[in-house]
Amino acid sequence: MMNRFENKIALVTGSSQGIGEACALRLAKEGADIILNGRKFDERGEELIAEIEKMGRRVKFLAADVSKTKDVIKLIDDAVAVFGSLDILVNNAGLEKKADFWEVTEEDYDIVMDTNLKGIFFGIQAFVKYCKREKRAGTIINMSSVHEEIVFPHFSAYCASKGAMKMLTRNLATELAPLNIRINNVAPGAVTTPINQDLLNNKEQLEKLLDNIPMRRMGKVEDVAAVVAFLASDEAGYVTGSTYFVDGGLTYHYEEQ
Fold first, then answer.
1. How far is residue 173's CA from residue 199's CA, in Å, rounded to a whole number?
2. Would you say the pTM of this structure is higher than 0.70?
3. Do residues 180 and 153 make contact, with C-beta atoms less than 8 angstroms apart?
């Protein structure tokens, strides 16, 4: 595999498992040094560090809760300090809470919006301030969802956060272009990750979902990581303000069951 990211340093938030882990591995395979992140350092982080080090890449894990503004700003500053610079920011960390709209609590709303939007907003701001100060180019990839575009009943706060991310990315594409900073979203559809384990275990629900996916399969985390790697690379040098759907055709073939 070519070294598209030689001498580049990438921070991937929420990279202990699932899509974040796949993104970290893909960027490392293509030459990037990696800063991993999660709320706490555990055996998953240890295993990932060992795997990336085997590739001959430098790697460090920084524990931080990206739902807290102070923590996410410190995370960016600490990430810059680890290897002396930062080129790529992948905002992967996110969460969802299922509830009927009339049952959503303020606490649940806040944790979803703080993690999926507020933390990302101020993390991007800290990264932009760094790039501006050092007169460096930068690349930002946000992990959105097909639900920035299509409905997801019983997940109203989650959909609101992803819809806002869509508009934030389009706005920042214009504002950051003069600084030579690109920003794009990747919107996974139904992907085989720990967050979807209940669905995978429910054959009836899974079959209904597959009926809505023209490609008739769930996505793999590697499918998403490949698009993230493209957007992070110089090959996407003229791409900003876009959302790339990685969904097997789901988004414009979707019907709620």
1. 35
2. yes
3. no
